[in-house]
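Researcher: Here's a chain I'd like modeled. Treat it as a single chain, no partners, no ligands.
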Amino acid sequence: MTREPDGTPDGTIALMQSHLGRQLRQYYPEVVEISGGSRLGEVLARLTLALARAEAGREVPASFGAELLGAVPRLRRYALSLAPRGADADDLVQQTLLKAWEHRRQFVPGTSMPAWLFTILRNGFFNGRRRHRREVADPDGIHAAALVSEAVQEHRASLRDLQDALDRLEPGHREALLLVGVEGLTYEAAAVVLGCPAGTVKSRVSRARDRLARDLGQGPSQGPGQNLGQHPDAGHR
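Model: Modeled as a single isolated chain. Structure tokens:
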């Protein structure tokens, strides 16, 4: 049996089948559709050609391009969690892809491509907004309006409750929860992205999970093994 970074069996991490886990992934879905005429679409087209040439010339491993392009939907989701406006998020993704291409020789094969890209994206976000640090918020409902969800009032109200609960989390706790619970990173991989010890990530995830559970009326967590913020595949990434 595989085990989580804290030594608990992966059978105990059933959050993503739980109500809270499903809500998190509905609130932050992968954003797949990209307009070919958009700036991001044009960058992807050029990057695809450049990757093909680089792989043909054995400049990068054959798997590099597939991993890089395959991570784009997750990059867009993570970018939206930092910059809720779609145009800003896509600009972040575009900058991340260009930076990743520029520094492609720095990627270590066999390590986590998403964690490497999330680190680049996060650094770009905070470096570009050093004076005006922004929290993940959606006061006008911009992010919620973009979600693909059932056209049922009760469902929309549920997402709004989750949005309000997420907004009440400390930014560092929210980001740790999203990286581990939604993006499926291990505590160690999330620690690299966030630039802090893995134990700190685990603590932030636990506190964010418990706060969300309380605010959403789902009761407290069931102890350290019941990782409400952990994706079921996190131990394998």
